[in-house]
Amino acid sequence: MNQPCFWWRDVFPFKFVMETLGTMGQLAWPLESRELCIYWDDVPQRNAIITREELWKTVYPKRFHLKAVHFGYAYPEMAQPVGRRDQRELNKMDVLPSRVPVVLDVDMDGKVQRSCKCADDAFCETCWRECIQERAVPLIEDFLENVMRLRMYFFVFSGRRGIHVWIMDPEVLEWTFMHRTTFMSLLKAHVKGAVKFDEAVTTQRNHTCKVPLGLHTSTHNFCHALERPREFNPKVKVYHFTEATPEVVQQSINFIESRVPYLSEKKSTNKKQRI
User: How many domains does the chain have?
Assistant: First the structure.
């Protein structure tokens, strides 16, 4: 398996990511209400709204050509692809719950304060430790658990120079666009400028976010869940796709299910129903 395309075909946890996470364990809107952005090789297919049957008949057989998958918002009132004009109108709406996880995007960019000499998009073991392990992770954990009283979240390595935080408590599914904007304002006040976020990922309805447990498009590193985010440093250890075996992927799935119990509970219920 010396090419990423074989990893996407043989190792990528298609069902868990596309169905389980895509529908929040079926707590959210059905899959056909969820916007997808699928990158076939280097060509993005945006505004893809598909049924479960189409997912398995048209997407799954072509996974050899996958390069990235992004989730968008859920549009329960839309049974067809969303055009730009429709998106602008939907952005003005604040009456429907989003029905998707809240995702935070933290990057090591040139705006991050650091004691080392790294500049722009570069980073070293020292500045990652200072900015992510010792600053971003503890501040985010404190805000989520002690301020917002949220528990069902997990950190994901972006595959290059950042981390994502997926917040999947059932109550966040009921948040509107305004709720998310308020949440981000409170979070920024809590971290007091010590952490830099890509706010659009969290607050803008028409912004997509990269799914976890895939590969970064340029580094081809595995975007795995971080069981110990305060200890993880990509300058020490990452999983290149050649090292991201089915066992490594399953470990991330198991950890996510431990952090978000309703995902595994739903799976158990489905098994009992089939029996």
Answer: 1
Tell whether the model's pLDDT for residue 247 goes beyond 90. Answer: yes
Q: Tell me the pLDDT tens digit for each residue of 85-126.
A: 555 565 555 556 777 899 999 987 656 677 788 877 788 899
CATH classification at residue 11:
3.90.920.10
* Cβ-proximal residues to 212 (8 Å cutoff; 6+ apart), any chain: 17, 21, 156, 164, 166, 223, 224, 225, 252, 256
* b/e code 141-179 from CB counts within 10 Å (16+ = b): eebbeeebebebbbbbbbbbbbbbbbbbbeebbebebeb
Compute the distance between CA of residue 209 and CA of residue 73 in angstroms, rounded to an integer: 9
HEC readout, 42-105:
CEEEEEECCCHHHHHHHHHHHHHHEEEEEEEEECCCCCCCCCHHHHHHHHCCCCCCCCCCEEEE
Q: For the segment 41-68, what is each residue's pLDDT rounded down to a tens digit?
A: 777 777 666 788 888 998 899 999 999 9
Average pLDDT across the chain, whole number: 85
Give the domain range for residue 32: 4-274
Strand order in the sheet with 34-40: 43-48, 34-40, 66-74, 209-210
pTM of the model: 0.89
